[in-house]
Design brief:
Residues 1-16 have a biased composition (Basic and acidic residues). Pfam families: CMS1. InterPro entries: Cms1 (IPR032704), P-loop_NTPase (IPR027417). The chain has helices spanning 2-11, 39-49, 55-59, 79-86, 90-96, 112-121, 123-126, 142-151, 161-169, 199-219, and strands at residues 105-108, 132-135, 156-159, 180-183, 223-226. The protein is of the alpha/beta class. It has a domain at 99-227: P-loop containing nucleotide triphosphate hydrolases (Rossmann fold, 3-Layer(aba) Sandwich). The protein has a five-stranded parallel beta sheet with strand order 2-3-1-4-5, sandwiched between helices. It is globular. The termini are far apart.
Length: 227
């Protein structure tokens, strides 16, 4: 009997130690803030993300209150009411706009699905005559987007940070005549994360601001808005 028990123990497979899962803190609806962020928060994110820049280099990408348009801090605005606030004379502006490659309003969203939905939500504000374009990878090839931008007058554009930045760097998209660059700041995905909470999207947005948007704010009349 004793020998049998010894043989059974020798034949048994060694127990595999299970790795302990780290309990990540999840955002819950109960913890969500009632208000959105102010321009100060965006400036803080820039300072944190580009902390390795020298003081002189950071001055080139610093923003002041004058670089911002209205922000949806109270989170009470609908898409239509927000754009009516930042562009109250939209019909007159869009009718007079004749510059190719430079939409009057550019909106940046965290992903393609959200950008597409945002474009639909803004339909009432844009009106029948304004022409809009979706700028993200899933919609069409970048070469086709370049062609559309170079050949047509676009009034309203919505897309993802990386695609918008790529189009600007390829001289297919310009902020020279853009009035507002709006960040879809308060929207959260199914995991309750905002654009700024997702590492890859945040990095793309920060680079877009540093390389393209902030220089345009200083050189032209572009205002940044947080929706």
């Amino acid at each position: 009997f004793i020998l049998e028990r010894k043989e059974m123990k020798q034949n048994e497979e060694p127990e595999v130690k299970k790795k302990k899962r780290r309990n990540r803190k999840r955002i819950t609806e109960a913890k969500l803030p009632d208000q959105g962020d102010s321009p100060t928060m965006l400036r803080d994110y820039l300072k944190l993300h580009f902390s390795k820049l020298s003081k002189l280099e950071f001055e080139d990408i610093s923003l002041t209150e004058s670089n911002f348009t209205a922000c949806n801090i109270d989170k009470e605005h609908t898409t239509t009411s927000y754009f009516k606030q930042i562009a109250p004379k939209w019909h007159r502006l869009s009718t007079a706009h004749s510059h190719k490659m430079s939409p009057l309003i550019i909106v940046v969203c965290g992903n393609a699905l959200r950008a597409s939905k945002f474009n639909t939500e803004a339909k009432t504000f844009k009106g029948k005559d304004a022409r809009s374009i979706k700028l993200f990878a899933r919609h069409m090839k970048i070469d086709d987007q370049i062609k559309l931008l170079r050949e047509n007058v676009i009034h309203f554009a919505v897309g993802t940070p990386e695609r918008i930045r790529s189009l600007i760097l390829q001289d297919a998209l310009s902020l020279e005549h853009t009035r507002a660059f709006v960040i879809d700041w308060n929207w959260r995905d199914v995991k309750l994360k905002r654009l700024i909470d997702i590492r890859e999207a945040r990095a793309s947005l920060m680079n877009l601001l540093k390389d393209c948007v902030i220089p345009a704010c200083k050189k032209h009349h572009v205002k940044i808005g947080l929706f």
